[in-house]
Amino acid sequence: LGVGLLGGSIGLAAKSSISGCKIIGYGHRTSTLDAALARKAIDQAFTRPEDAVRDCDLVILCTPVGMFGQLLDQIAPALMPEALVTDVGSTKRSVVQWTEQHLPNPGRFVGSHPIAGSEKRGIQFARPDLFANALCLTTPTALTNPQAVEAVESFWRLLGMRLMRLTPEEHDSLLAEVSHLPHALAAVLATIPSDKALSLCGKGFLDATRIAAGDPGLWRDIFMDNRDNLQDTLRATRGELDILLSLLETGNADAVQAWLAAAAARRQALDPPPR
Amino acid sequence: LGVGLLGGSIGLAAKSSISGCKIIGYGHRTSTLDAALARKAIDQAFTRPEDAVRDCDLVILCTPVGMFGQLLDQIAPALMPEALVTDVGSTKRSVVQWTEQHLPNPGRFVGSHPIAGSEKRGIQFARPDLFANALCLTTPTALTNPQAVEAVESFWRLLGMRLMRLTPEEHDSLLAEVSHLPHALAAVLATIPSDKALSLCGKGFLDATRIAAGDPGLWRDIFMDNRDNLQDTLRATRGELDILLSLLETGNADAVQAWLAAAAARRQALDPPPR
């Protein structure tokens, strides 16, 4: 449901990895569906989600997070009793809660978050290897059917992903730190410089701000949905800025270097070891 | 003077673009000088800067900014009267001031800042195309000899660079916005997440924090040298974070989207138009 970068890439990846699978796509724009059909990311297209899910073994929500509630309402009566439902949303508490309220069989819903994608948007950027070697987080709860979790995780594994389980609460708290805060700070960075300063920027600035080019509507949904956690990380950022400001104000060069060295060590540890 | 990433790349680039030029390298470690000789980035090596500059037409300071004062003191008595002196430092007010105090012929000094490099450090990362199509800022003052400016700019042009002139004050203020602040925020971003959160990070986080892996000593010098401007941008960042925090606290989704959209538009404008 939703045949953009992620939905389209799932179609392409599934069709190249799983023999005999049929992909049904839902989208509200026929031009997008036509593009997805032309790229063979989907085999069949519907403009009403309830029509799309009717015969599906596995339903994957790939729209922006803000549409999940309405989408679940629409598909609930049309799902096969044993249909599995998952999603690719960047936040997990709300979708898990909505499924428990809206789906006739919430045990067959397994929250997923494949950590893949880019600041680009749309079927034209979809590619079959988007998920290869990337991490997929699943967020089963006490209500989730264990076989449903296994089945959904097997699907992501067939697309080449590594799996990790978290609670929805853990997920949203951790992702605020490594995804939603970075987006907010990249946006701040893109906002502050004057036009003249921007005209001088180098590769470092472009890399540091690339994610800020992401779709504002998509990120509005993520920010609003996870705003308690995001607020916590923004306050932590303010605290860290105050630390750096006070080191600069006192002119303590050694302390500035120690502060930079701690950050550099943490960042360097994320790079693969040199060959 | 200094044969690391920038000094070594200048040697490689000059030797591939300018026929018959001879490159003399200074470094305080013989192992670095040996590596630079082996890569043919330099033709001759000295471990005392005053020995290195004695017969040079153009002297380029490529050490960390914090060493410039001492280095200028050491080379001043050894320079040929008509020698041109420039540098590749990331800040410009202090080096310009030092040259006016330390050099016998300050009119022959032209501050330069080639906006090229990376978070990597050392002669092993040097490459002859590091400067191709990149921007080089020069910061002549009323004391600078106009022919010296032309000559230094011609040198950078031979290495493939585009040129722009700024006052030292403009330079340091603008670079705080597009280079020093981004480094500080990347370091903050690398500092805040828990180890568990870091283990989930994707490409977006890695790109946004890459510059934070840069050499802490080098960046300490830059931060300390430009700390008034950096403090201003850090305070502006705090103000922008407070704006976002208040939008999130009031739950104003439209305003959050407008804030994100403004940042996305500014960032998108920096990308080359799609083919």
Low-confidence stretches of chain A: none
Q: What oligomerization state is this entry in? A: homodimer
Most extensive interface: A-B, 85 and 86 residues
* Main beta sheet strand tally, sense and closure of chain A: 3 strands, parallel
Our Rg estimate of chain A from Cα atoms comes to: 21 Å
Distance between the ends of chain A: 42 Å
Shape descriptor of chain A reads elongated
What level of helicity do the residues of chain A show?
40-55%
Mean pLDDT of chain A: 95
N-to-C order of helices and strands of chain A? HEHEHEHEHEEEHEHHHHHH
Task: Tell me the total number of β-strands of chain A.
Answer: 8
Give the number of helices of chain A: 12
Q: Tell me what portion of residues of chain A adopts beta-strand conformation.
A: 5-15%
Structural class of the helices, strands and pairings of chain A? Answer: mainly alpha
The strand line-up of the biggest sheet of chain A is 3-4-5
